[in-house]
Amino acid sequence: MNITLSIIVVFCFLSINTSSSFSVKHYKNIGFKNTNNVIKARNHLLLGGNCYDLKEAPAAAVVTGGVTFSKRIPPQQSRVQSKTLLHAFSSPSSNEILSSVSRGAGSSLNIASLLHQDDVYVLSFVMLLSTCGLSLERRTKIGKALSAPLATMAMALIVANIGIVPFSSPVYDFINKYFVALAIPLLLYDSNIRRVLSDTGSLLVAFLIGAVSTVIGTIITYPLFPLKSLGSEGWKIASALAARHIGGAINFVAVCETLNVSGSAISASIAADNVVVALYFALLFSLATDGEDSSIAKSSRGPQDESNLDVEIRDPENVSNTGGNITMPSIAVSLTVASCLVTVGKIMTRVFFPSTSSLPLISIVTVIAASLFPNFFQKISFTGTSIGVIFMQMFFAASGAAGSIRLVMKKAPSLFLFSLLQVAIHFISLIGIGRVVLKMNSNELYLASNANVGGPTTAAAMAQAKEWKRLVLPALLIGILGYATATPIALGLGQLLKKMPIFGS
Q1: Which segments of 259-373 does DSSP mark as H helices, in order?
Q2: Taking the mean position of all CA atoms in its chain, how far away is CA 214?
Q3: For residues 120 and 117, what is the distance between their CA atoms, to the nearest angstrom?
Q4: Which of 21, 141, 166, 424 is the most exposed, having the fewest neighbouring CB atoms within 10 Å of its CB?
Q5: CA torsion 239→362→271→203, rounded to 10°?
Q6: CB count in 10 Å sphere of residue 465
Q7: How many Cβ atoms from other residues are within 10 Å of residue 120's Cβ?
Q8: Residue 83 reports pLDDT greater than 70
Q9: 127-168: per-residue pLDDT in tens?
């Protein structure tokens, strides 16, 4: 952890120094409001948001503040775009200024520009941020409270907005296109649907009611809070949050990537939703009672399940997973199988749904394969989960780096209200259908809701904390079922939201 932070500090120091170490005292008297933002690129000079071509020398010009300017020209005729585009050439009084820019700022800014264009530099920072996010969650209380994805996105958002890493890069595009697609099957190797159906009992029914309740909550909330601050991405984020509240972060990422959601919207959504989820978990823990009662013992597991109590199921979102046997062959097999599953999913998408994303079918193909060959996938599940978590962390780092702090702060309040109402309606519908209509056990409904909104990790932790030993494994299994089903459900829901009338419009 200390080594990782030290490396990040060194990178930050170098990046900041390469972008702001030059003197700007020569520009104090030439009439620009902002003399701190000076950029020289090729034959162009950017000062205070204005662009000047240093190569052209028009016959008619006006001298202002020691620099000779020509008349304004249309933006499309210039090689460099900015808010104000002017031609300029060096007069005797401006030669000193221009040479000073070349000497003082040119070399430093060229280094900064080269770093941003260097894919290895950008990839190194993405890996550093991903690793630091994982370490923070495992080793610090703040990291555990934030979660690794949010910690990673927050750090990436900061370093991008202060200029250490670029807002856009081919590295980000590569991660979104290839690593996310590989992460989906890698994280679903434990998705044995046959075991979910046989080992979860009435908790499965409670979970399905919770999923339906999330859909109901989204349909009611979106017309009331259409997320206008997100513009055309409002229905997309509503769908992604529905996916997260049925399955987990894996499904949130899959929906966002399928619908091409911007980095700022993703960062703001995760930040706002994490606050709502934390408050909701506090409510569930306060309502649930400690210790198993007879109804849980009878309904949650069949008699044949006693032998399976010690069988381990790993949660893909739990970065604290340890104890697995990762070897060179297991890494090779995990990546090879994931690549093959992605290929099959892409081919099927091109044949049956040519205009849509391949991620939903990749998920379905993986679940089918894991259910047909459970023993094989169980052997590589730990390795696959470990690699998949790293790929997901890289996605969160890339998404955070592509975001704007100003836009995140602008969008977060409406997202908080949306998520709060969505989860509230989910809870009311769950209790209404499950408890009032079907007379189900309240603790099972609370646990199923935890699995819906938070995923397998938080559900299993709740079962352990409340001493519901027979529900720990079923809680993990229904959470994994959420991973397998939430993405197609949310994408279908998104098409409905897209066509829904907005309240008050």
Answers
A1: 263-287, 294-299, 328-352, 359-372
A2: 20
A3: 9
A4: 141
A5: 80
A6: 11
A7: 9
A8: no
A9: 999 999 999 988 888 888 778 888 898 899 899 888 888 888
pTM for the complete prediction? 0.67
**Burial profile 342-360: b = 16 or more Cβ within 10 angstroms, e = fewer:** bebbbeebeeeeeeebbbb
For residues 364 and 374, what is the distance between their CA atoms, to the nearest angstrom? 15
Residues 6+ apart with CB under 8 A from 375: none
Alpha-helical regions (H) of 373-441: 374-379, 381-401, 405-430
CA distance 38 to 21: 11
Buried b (16+ CB within 10 A) or exposed e, 473-503: bbbbbbbbbbbbbbbbbbbebbeebeeeeee
pLDDT band at residue 107, thresholds of 50, 70 and 90? low
CB contact at 8 A, 316 and 188: yes
- What are residue 327's phi and psi, to 5 degrees? -125, 170
Cα 343 to chain centroid distance, Å, stands at 24
Write down the mean pLDDT value for the chain.
76
CB 49 within 8 A of CB 84: yes
